[in-house]
Specification:
The protein has seven helices and ten strands. The protein has helices at about 10-35, 40-55, 130-135, 140-155, 175-190, 210-250, 260-275; strands spanning about 10, 60, 65-70, 75-80, 85, 90-95, 100-105, 110, 115-130, 195-210. The strands form three sheets. Strands 7, 8, 9 and 10 form a four-stranded antiparallel β-sheet that branches. A three-stranded antiparallel β-sheet has the order 1-5-2. It is of the alpha+beta class and about 290 residues long. It has three domains: about 10-95, no CATH class; about 100-210, 2-Layer Sandwich (Tetrahydropterin Synthase, Chain A); about 215-275, no CATH class.
Length: about 290
């Protein structure tokens, strides 16, 4: 539904008018008693009825609030201006907040793209933008937001893996938080737009492997970290060995044949790649003994 501006008059002006009607009603009633004229009594009663009829039309609006007006089941408009207003007393008035609201979602268990069970939760900031859609296009817009938010989070978790290797450019739930949050926001907006809701922000607040596989995944992460660290150590050690052989040759410190070079390379790699400190052995003989 398209939101339209509701018609409402100034509450102060209508209050003055209602007091004038009341005063005129009292004056006619007094005059009817003094003159004994039945016409004035009828007019007095009619004016007093109008005064009573006008009273339910007053309502107040705070900042970031709206009042939806419905006349005999037909949507008549929405008043968003703050202050004191008066509208047709026959209007059914439904107040709605336009302020930003938070959803701190509970942890839910889902499967990621790789089929691993994970726990995930999100914080969502939203507010009502179209009051007509919020009231008339869905049954209960607050329940609709809660249900669709959980559904969108489940769908998003199944689109990405929990984690990927360091040399991979693929998106993951853990390593691509900004991209995943933007995707979640867009998904929510598509779902909640029909309820007149605008999503201001969506962020993953909790992300972890499910308890039944958490220990195994921790071992896997540790193994991956050890392999990556070993790879860096070996690359650095090979570079240092190359540099050592090059400097010995260029500076003509010592001439080594291929067998001695192989022995030196082996010793340097043991020293550089070993997990424990090496114990030096001093050769008191010649280079070839």
């Amino acid at each position: 539904m398209k939101e339209i501006s509701g018609r409402a008059k100034s509450g102060g002006l209508m209050l003055i008018l209602s007091f004038l009607v009341l005063i005129l009603s009292i004056a006619l009633f007094v005059k009817s008693i003094a003159d004994g004229t039945g016409v004035f009594i009828i007019l007095s009663i009619l004016l007093f009825t109008v005064y009573i009829f006008m009273l339910p039309g007053f309502f107040t609006m705070q900042p970031n609030q709206a009042m939806v007006l419905v006349l005999f089941g037909k949507y008549s408009g929405t008043v968003k201006k703050e202050g004191w207003h008066w509208a047709n007393p026959f209007y059914t008035k439904k107040k709605i907040s336009l302020r930003s609201r938070n959803i701190n979602g509970e942890k839910i268990k889902v499967n990621d793209e790789m089929g691993n069970p994970i726990e995930i939760a999100a914080v969502i900031v939203w507010k009502v933008e179209n009051t007509a859609e919020a009231f008339f296009d869905v049954d209960n817009y607050i329940d609709y937001v809660n249900v669709q938010s959980e559904s969108a989070l489940r769908h998003l978790a199944g689109m990405y893996p929990y984690d990927v290797s360091e040399d991979s450019d693929a998106l993951s739930l853990r390593g691509s938080s900004d991209e995943v949050s933007e995707a979640l926001k867009n998904e929510l907006q598509q779902r909640l737009g029909k309820a007149g809701v605008i999503v201001e922000e969506a962020r993953i607040s909790h992300l972890a492997y499910a308890p039944e596989i958490a220990a195994a995944m921790l071992q896997r992460q540790q193994a991956s970290a050890i392999i990556a660290a070993r790879q860096k150590i070996v690359e650095g050690a090979v570079g240092m060995v190359q540099m050592a052989l090059k400097m010995l040759s260029e500076n003509k410190i010592v001439e080594l044949d291929e067998e001695r070079k192989a022995a030196m390379v082996s010793n340097l790699l043991v020293v550089l790649c070993g997990e424990r400190s090496t114990q030096p052995i001093i050769n008191t003989g010649t280079l070839h003994n």
